[in-house]
Every structure is written in structure tokens, then in C-alpha cells.
Amino acid sequence: MIPQYLVDFDLGELPVVQTDCIVIGSGIAGLFAAIKASEDRRVIMITKKTLMESNTRYAQGGIAAVIAEDDSPAYHRQDTLMAGAGLCSSAAVDVLVNEGPEGVHELIRLGTLFDKEDGVLALTKEGAHSHRRILHANGDATGYEIVRALAEQVAEHKNIEVWDDHYVIDLITDGGECVGALLQRPGGGRLFLQGDATILCSGGAGQLYRYTTNPEVATGDGVAIAYRAGAHVRDMEFIQFHPTALSYPGAPRFLISEAVRGEGAVLRNIKGERFMDRYHELLELAPRDIVARAIVSEMELTKSTFVYLDITHESVDMVKHRFPTIYETCMGYGLDITSDWIPVAPAAHYMMGGIKTDLNGESNISRLFACGEVSSTGLHGANRLASNSLSEAIVFGRRIIERIRELQPLQRDQVAVSCKLGRVESPTQAIVERRLKLQKVMVRYAGLRRNEDMLHKGLEELKRQLPIFNSCLTKREEYEFANMLTCCLLITESALAREESRGAHYREDYPKRDDARWQRHLLQIRELGLVEELSDDV
Question: Which residues belong to the active site?
Fold first, then answer.
């Protein structure tokens, strides 16, 4: 069993800092939650790198909300449920589609400058949306604009203290409650940060895979530390691979937004043939999992490592205006997307599963909350609808703060918690080598397409790394690797257990969706293992 704590410690021997609310992570979820909490509380925000480095920053497409007169919450609800493939929480979907528009207007009040056309908010359409409801900023830099606006608010607020370059090693629980976190400072010293409420907003886990659209910080820390603390983790088998990441020599797997297809781009194999009509009636605007697997099939059929995304039939001015970031980035590698087809391939993008929460973002551990990609509110089901993630962070972030205001302050002057396993041995193999091997294992055995044999082999490979938990870990990259390994084990074990194909989880040996047996969630609990839970979307 994975131990509760990664390191040996005694809180009685460590410096203690107390605050009202601890926010871990600095994406849209963390920034917004910190701003809302700071209205009447002292907040310490922890970020393991800098305030501006998060998955949100790289979100291009936009934020989904019902704004247009011809749209409605009922339409948005229907689209979300369809994409979620029978595993959405109907209640969570209702919360999002009804409270999302107010969340967008709150972002505007906080300084976010969304694009406008003729004086009104500009809306676009993305895959599996029935209406134009995606707000965007600076064309294709929506995430960056939201983070910019919110980060400015955070930096100026007297009730928010930002701790850059601090790493949360573990959550501290006492008497069934989360009472704070064990942190490592930039210089290596440790401290105990105690708080009345702790909100995990630490983002996703794209770095578990060799090819990802996520930044280097996306290592699944939040899910891993919550799991070790005893939180229920749900739906970890559902990893969304974005169909279209740039696949070009010398370039990172830069995201080519779904909005490019929403604005008319088509997919072609290396022979130049458009192929999506062979896979789905919605063609390029089919749900992401279907598009991603179609691309892999075409790559195999044509013995290629990529396919092409073609938007050259659109006007040069439109492409440059609507997708300036993508245009400029591709130009930096010698690709002019107004005249050249863009080589693309799928890459790990988004984690549908995470820490199970209620509709107020609270986990099964009292005083521990989760918001954004690290959480499993039930909204996304087996496959996230494009651009619902930014909306989720705002809607549930507000609900979390309302719930925290109902909590009584902690009545503990002294928290006597320690872990003394006698770890003395340092990790034997270089962490950078272990990390690369782990990423390759996940791509090979637990990627876009899976089967029982592959998943068993993957688990065997991963379990060879378990001695890391008995080692004396002292560095950030060592903690990160332990967290990545934890998440990889959770994903692979749940993928092996789910003997069907649904949403982003595709089993070659069980290619059909099986509602009679599998319209249910898989919970993973450190001391109990896998537990099944019926879906309420029936």
C-alpha cells in the first residue's frame, strides 16, 4: 500500500504558519477561489512555480456559457450529457449550465477582456456544442487573458499572500479533518501551514504521458496527495487526449485549438484525403475521443506519425485575427497556417477524473476542498465537453467559498502529527530517467487505446517503481515522481477494471459501451481499493 505520508516528519519540530484559507495552485480555479475567499478571510496561495504558470494559461479555445439569445441552459445541458457518455452527474451539469453565465460576468467584472464583435461578446462553436457559446479572448489566448486579469487582482489584494516556489509534500489530517499542509520552502526547509480550510486547485496530470499539451507543472500532485490523505478518487481511467497537437520536428506538442475546427478546418491524412466522414456524422466536430482515435487509425493505415489540419480555405485575415497565437507560434517553426497544412497528432490533454467532491466542492475529508481539473464534481462524465472546464472552475469555486463561510474556525493550537518510518536510503536511479520511463509506459500501455494484456504489462512496469515510497525523498522532482507514479497506478488499475469502452476510455477487447454493467463510477480509496458507485445519469 502507498503510505499516507511521503516523508518522515514531526510537526512539533517544524515552524508553523496559520491562516484562514489555504489555496494550492494558481490556475483559474486557484486564483478565483483566492479572490472570493479574500473578501472576508486571510488567504495563503501556494504555487510550486510562479503565479502565471498553470494549465489555464495555455487554454486557447475559451469558456462555455449560455449567452446567446438562441441558446439555453437546456441545450448546454443536453450537449454536456451527450459528451459525458452516461457518467455525468445530472445535478453537477445543472449547476454549471445555470450558474455559468453569471460566472462569466464575474470574470468580466474582475477585468477579463473577452473578444467582442460589433459591441457584443463574440461567441464561437466547438466540437459537440449545438450552439455558439464559447467566449474567447485575444482570438485564441483565452486562458492567458483570464489568468492575467485574475493574477492582477490577487497581487493587489491585501488579504492574499502568494508563496511562489513552495511545494506541498502532503496534506495533514487530524481527527478526520484536513488541518493544513506540509510544505517545502525554496531553500529546502519545511514548515507546517495550518488553515481552517484547504482548497486543492493544483490542475491536471498531462505530464504522466510522453506527449502532452500540458506544461511541466501538470504532474498530478493534487490527486496523489489527496489520495494519500484518504480522499476518494473517482473516474481516473478517463484521460482526454486532444486530437490536434502540433507534431513537427523541434516543436513542443503545442495545442491547436478545437476552435480551429469549429471555424471550418478539416482533417486530412498524409495522402491529402479528408477522412472524418468514415468515423462520425459530425465529421471534424465529433467528440474529442472519437476524433483522436480516428486520427490514430489514419496514422496507422498510412504508416505516418501525424495527419494534417487544413484551414487554408479560410481568408488570411480571418485566420490571423481569430488565431493569432497559433499563427505566430507555427510561423516560428516555418509553418504558415494560412497556406500550409498543419501536421498534428493526439496528445494527453485533460483528466476527467479526480478527487470526488459534492456540489460544494467538498471532499469526503472535512475541510478539504477541490476545484478545477483536480476535482471530480461529476460534470464531465467520461468525456469533457470542450470549454466546460474554465466554467467549472468559476462556478464551483464560488460554491466552495460559500461552504467555507459556514465552517467554524479550527480549535487546535497544537496539532501533534508525525510520521516516523525510518526512511534513510536515497533513490537509487536518477529521477529524470525514471520519469521518462514512466511516461513511455503510460503511452504504450494506458494511452488512447487499451486492452487487458497491455494494462497488465503497464501495471507490472509501474509496480517496479514502488520502492520509491520507502526512500528518503528530499527534492521537488522526487516528490513529483512519487505523485506521478501514484496517479499512473490509479489510472491503470481503473482502466483495467472497466471492461467496456466509454468516452475517453477505449478498450480494444471490450469495444462496446455496456450500460447494463458499467453505467457506474470507479472510486479508489487508499485503504479499501476499488469501489463501484452507480451513476445518477440514467
Answer: 288
